[in-house]
Amino acid sequence: MPTVSRKPWITWNNPGHQSCLQNRSNGRFCTLQKPKADMNEHREGSLEAPTRHPIDWKSPEYFDEERLNQELERVFDICHGCRRCVSLCHAFPTLFDLVDESGTMEVDGVAKEDYVKVVEHCYLCDLCYMTKCPYVPPHEWNVDFPHLMLRAKAVEFRKGKTRLRDRVLTSTDVVGSLAGIPVVAGVVNAVNKNTAARRIMDKTVGIHADAILPEFHSRPARKRIRSVDGEATADAVTRGKVAVFTSCYGNRNAPGLVEDMVAIFAHNNIPVRLVEQEKCCGMPKLELGDLETVEKHKDFNVPQLTRLIDAGWDIIAPIPSCVLMFKQELPLLFPGDEALQKIRRHMYDPFEYLMHRHKEGLLNTDFKHPLGKVAYHVPCHQRVQNMGLKTRDILQLVPDTTLEVIERCSGHDGTYAVKSESHEISMKICRPVTSRVKKFEPDHYISDCPMAGHQIQNGMGDEQTLAAESPFTLLRQSYGI
To answer: How far is residue 430 from each of residues 121, 200, 408, 458, 460, measured CA to CA in Å?
Structure first.
């Protein structure tokens, strides 16, 4: 049966498309080639596994606004002809509304200055790339929507268009250090819970009054956790001892989560230590388009991590976004950095690590307490690591435990859910998740991402008696430790 031609084949006379043509071997920006006369030789979608091109952000062409707009128009035109991603986030409805309300009802009728309205609603969850889009590379149309949005964000940032609020919110190291001072922490936490103060923040700063803001702890994880000694037992994949990259959030906002994780590893006779020094993984600044600061954080963290890896340690982090940053985003931003490639090979999601141990018969499965019904939300940045549902697999080992797995975005993104202009949209994105949780009537609901957990809790409403929990907390409870 001949394949059905999609709209991008029809628009080859569009000047923007013609000027965008480059040799496919380039692989940096637009790699679409002009189709042959026989359109039956071309597939509608790719049958091969998605692959990613390195991000050549060091090239001056990367920040060329005219070239960027040409590529945005090309990709937006493909998205307009497909519309498969409309249910994922607000970027796609925004794009399709702009097209449908334009004079031509095509992408060429959308003003270039309105492209940023689409960009603002992309928070780089990667779900469109990994779960929906049939035109990702190696397909010749070479659509990488998230990384194109990253490029647009980087251009906006370099032009000085980024709000001070967003620069502050993404400066997690600085904010955490200041808000973690004992007296300051109490004041910040009290203000964040005060209704009147939050209304003022909404009007003046642009932080929504109804968004849940994380609590700051004056005694962070890095001061609570001590090294766990022991003899490492390697398996076919892991070395059997781990160094913990606590992350900004784990260190200052959720130290109990990190404590629970370390307790689980210690209970499984896995030696644990902390990374001696660390800065933010860079994900918040990446989502802002501040690639220079991403590089600065990388330059600090890489020597710390490689020194441990060379000494025989594997690396784990409690927050999925941090793991993804070292596994995918940083290696793509700095493809020639061999040290990053080494870190990528030795960086693990904690439950991924435990599952490797279980396959070798090295996981302690002497669980003392059942968990009952557990609604488990899978964060986007964990899903796109392509490792499977390891948290689910581990929790299913606990007797008398039933899991409802929810693979849907919570809409949080770290900052998107707290901004005044996007909070209500984020809650709308989260609504299918909360509906599933309520319908399941669980004994617990959890997410590997604590920020997503807060978002779900916010969407559950005041009538709900349960609070979001961490899977580390539940597993520790089931062990009885």
So the answer is: 15, 25, 8, 10, 10
The residue among 217, 57, 28 whose CA lies nearest residue 153 is 57
> pTM higher than 0.85 for the full model?
yes
Q: For residue 318, give the nearest of 281, 361, 286 by alpha carbon.
A: 281
List, in sequence order, every residue forming a beta bridge with 401; answer none if it has no partner.
372
Greatest CA separation found in the chain?
A: 71
Tell me how far apart the alpha carbons of residues 114 and 112 are, in angstroms, rounded to a whole number.
5
Per-residue pLDDT of 174-205, as tens digits, reads 888 887 787 888 899 899 999 999 999 999 99
Domain borders along the chain are 7-158, 221-356, 365-479
CATH of domain 221-356: 3.40.50
- Average pLDDT taken over every residue of the chain: 88
Burial status of residue 455 (CB atoms within 10 A of its CB: 0-12, 13-18, 19 or more): buried
**Residues whose CB falls within 8 Å of the CB of residue 145, separated by 6 or more in sequence, listed in order:** 75, 79, 85, 122, 128, 129, 133
Q: Which of 295, 310, 226, 209 is nearest to 262 (CA)?
A: 226
Common-topology check for domains 221-356 and 365-479: yes
Say if domain 365-479 classifies as CATH 2.60.120. no
